[in-house]
Amino acid sequence: MPQNSSSATEGRVAAGRVAAIGIIAIVAILAVAAILLFINLPDANAFNARVERLFIENDDLTSGSEIKLLEILAQSGTAFSETLASYRVVIFVLLVFATALLVASLVFLVTILTLNRRMGEIERQGIQVSSLLISREENAVYLNNMEFKLTEAAIETLSILAEARMDDEVLSGSEIEGMISGRDAADCDEAAGATRIKRLRDALGNQMVSELLVKTIARRGYVLSIEKDVIRMI
User: Fold this and answer.
1) 152, pLDDT greater than 80
2) Digit-coded pLDDT (tens) for 44-102
3) Which residues does 23 contact at the CB level (< 8 Å), separation at least 6?
4) Residue 208 pLDDT more than 60?
5) Would the CA dihedral through 181, 185, 188, 192 be positive or negative?
6) What pLDDT score does 70 carry?
7) Measured between alpha carbons, how far is 78 from 62 in angstroms, rounded to an integer?
8) Which helix (H) or strand (E) holds 166?
9) Among 53, 100, 132, 228, which residue carries the largest CB count within 10 Å?
10) pTM for the complete prediction?
11) What is the DSSP string of 70-136?
12) What CA–CA distance (Å, rounded) separates 106 from 112?
């Protein structure tokens, strides 16, 4: 158990480190891209500067139509300046949005990889059960403080498996059926015990929990994949 805890902790630390490095890299790349983009954008006042130059260098433009043309150019320069400023804001918002999306995607990816790794560890090592309390009176089982209401037959099957686990025994389907029915195992059908195991798994509901809790050992039988010192029956 300490080794498993240490491995899980190291995995979380490594995942956190990868996420932090990835986030810093994304922010840095987009920051550099934003700086280069804003540097290369034309100056918002460039058009106004050209119009002002026209006013200064052409004092002889005194007719009404010429002055009107210069006023139109000045208004166009102001409109261009405002449009370019709004474009800068839009570009900035899009860059911030892209950064947020990339960071979120990276976090989700690291989370999924961490969960997949954890699931792989669970599949290899079995479910980590800190307590298993079987209450025959209530027809309930408390697995890591999670309550499962079971049928009387399912409780009986689970109780037999728990007793066998405490004795370090693996029970075949015929042995399970014989212990429940009170008959000799040789007179019982293997399929009957397998059916009881299937009903127990169905009653537990969660496929991952039931498949990892009640393990099938090829050509031997069934066993609870938990430490025997966590089992209690009342």
Assistant:
1) yes
2) 566 666 766 766 666 665 566 666 766 676 677 667 777 777 777 888 888 888 888 88
3) 103, 106, 107
4) no
5) positive
6) 63
7) 22
8) helix 152-166
9) 132
10) 0.47
11) HHHHHHHHHHHHHHHHHHHHHHHHHHHHHHHHHHHHHHHHHHHHHHHHHHHHHHHH----S-EEEET
12) 10
Tokens for 30, please give them. 């987009």
β-pair type (132-135, 231-233): parallel
Separation between Cα atoms, residue 191 and residue 100, nearest integer Å:
56
Reported for 202-209, long-range contacts at CB under 8 A and 24+ positions apart, including other chains, are: 203/148, 203/150, 203/151, 203/154, 204/141, 204/148, 204/150, 205/148, 208/122, 208/127, 209/127, 209/143
Helix or strand (DSSP H, E) at 216: strand 214-217
Question: Cα–Cα distance between 91 and 34 in angstroms, integer?
Answer: 9
Residues near 74 by Cβ (< 8 Å), separated by ≥ 6? 48, 51, 55
